Amino acid sequence: MDTDDHKSSFSDWIRSPQTMIALSAVVLSVCGLFISMYEASLIREQQRASVWPNVEIQPSIRNDTLKIFVVNSGIGPARIMKTSVMLEGEVKDNWGDVMSDFTFQRNETSDYQSLIQGSVLPPNSGQQMIFRIASNESDPQSNLAIQMGRSILQEDLNISICYCSVYDECWTTQLSYLIKRNRGEQVPSREERRVTRCSALEQSGI
Asked: What is the three-class DSSP state of 87?
């Protein structure tokens, strides 16, 4: 059979109604597969978005009392994976380690500490206090609440938290973000704060 016969046979085959129906069915099946995959991707994204947590660290600074709260203002639970407290860029082991860097009289203060690491914050949980220091010292230079509050406002004292959703999507947040926002400064977006895992954050016992 010569080349012309081959071309003629193929042309007849491709133009036949049965072939056109079969090819159309294949094209429709492939298109349906891609549409199904796209719809499944959208559904997964919607499911993730429906349980996004949003953890914020909020200080309350007064002359005699400093309080630090965490709040989950998102629409899904937040699993607190790692926490870190830093003073002048150095990660501290715990709140006692932080306070030892300030000048104060222990009998002039009272403090409260709550472990946040490993806990789960429900959505719209409201403020949960993780630290409080109160001082009745009249001298600002030895009033621990004033000293630590000033360090927070100067961003020398900072807290970082890495938290994850129920789908193991993780983000970081810092106490300094609220300070920056109050000054009108830009802070990293939610997408910029996304991390693949929390292991990179150095850990404190808070």
From this structure: strand
Q: Please list the pLDDT of the chain residue by residue as tens digits (206 residues).
A: 455 555 567 566 566 777 667 666 677 777 666 666 655 454 455 555 568 999 999 999 988 999 999 999 999 999 999 999 999 999 999 999 999 999 998 888 999 999 899 999 999 878 999 999 999 998 888 999 999 999 999 999 999 999 999 999 999 999 999 999 999 999 999 999 999 999 989 999 99
95 within 8 A of 112, measured Cβ to Cβ: no
Nearest-angstrom CA–CA distance, 77 and 53? 6
Q: What is the pTM of this model?
A: 0.77
Share of the chain residues as helix, strand and coil, in percent rounded to the nearest 5: 35, 30, 35
Smallest CA-to-CA distance from 133 within 114, 113, 150 is with 113
